[in-house]
Write a structure and sequence with these properties.
By secondary structure, the protein is of the alpha+beta class. It has helices spanning 12-23, 81-98, 135-148, 165-187, 198-208, and strands spanning 4-9, 30-36, 52-58, 66-68, 107-112, 117-122, 158-162, 191-192, 214-219, 226-231. A hairpin with a 6-residue loop joins strand 9 and strand 10.
């Protein structure tokens, strides 16, 4: 990993974010120096694209965390029938109000069991509820989790899907895991995947957990934590 890099952006924050992503570290792990910005722009340079350059140096007293990931099943909370019913009604009331702001053909379904409440929302025009790689979907799932638990002591686990996005994304990640594993075995060199959310990393880890030739490790800090796939030692 380089100790020092130069990063550019339209703003100082954008340049910093790009640099942190490239180094796969958090802001507290680097020293930052602004090399160039165009706050003092002349009249004739107004139409020139704005560029800010920064120098980002990894602090010597900081080490990037790397650890082998072991998938441990979480202890599930068993919900009573009364809790299931209350959580479902809470979600239903919330979604009925939300539907007024969504496309007219939007439909939803709620299914409940002893461990979770499953919500599916469908319409051809709900891409904005999914967001970039599901970021909006999972933020919305957190909101529904809070809504479902209103008036209940137990934390309610809500599983949300929009337009079948999760199944499609899971298949994409599993295919990626297999493809990268084959490349690692062929080249005998480790490969770093791009930063992913925790639920996506879990899919990769699970897919390759039984592979006897490669192993998966997680490195970096959120939100730039990523997986490294390498040969087993």
């Amino acid at each position: 990993m380089p100790k020092t890099i130069i990063s550019e952006g339209k703003t100082t924050n954008e340049a910093i974010e790009k640099g942190l992503k490239e180094l796969n570290v958090s802001r507290k792990m680097v020293d930052i120096k602004v090399l160039d910005n165009d706050d003092k722009r002349s009249f004739f340079s107004i139409l020139t694209p704005r560029v800010v350059k920064i120098e980002m140096t990894l602090r010597e007293d900081i080490e990037v965390k790397e650890e082998k990931t072991t998938i441990r099943p979480k202890k599930e909370i068993i919900l009573s029938e009364e809790e299931q019913e209350t959580a479902s009604k809470n979600i239903e009331e919330f979604l009925n109000e939300l539907k007024k702001e969504l496309p007219e053909d939007t439909q939803y379904s709620i299914k409940k069991d002893k461990t979770a409440i499953y919500v599916e929302i469908n319409s051809p025009n709900l891409g904005f509820l999914i967001g970039y790689r599901g970021e909006t979907l999972y933020a919305f799932q957190n909101i529904l989790t809070a809504v479902a638990g209103k008036g209940l002591e137990n934390r309610i686990r809500v599983i949300l899907d929009v337009e079948g996005y999760k199944a499609k994304r899971e298949k994409t990640l599993e295919d990626l895991a297999e493809k990268v594993a084959k490349t690692v075995i062929k080249t005998r060199k480790p490969i770093k995947l791009e930063p992913m959310q925790a639920y996506e990393r879990k899919i990769i880890h699970s897919k390759l957990q039984k592979n006897d030739k490669v192993e998966t490790n997680s490195i970096g800090e959120e939100p730039y934590r990523r997986i490294v796939i390498s040969l087993k030692k």
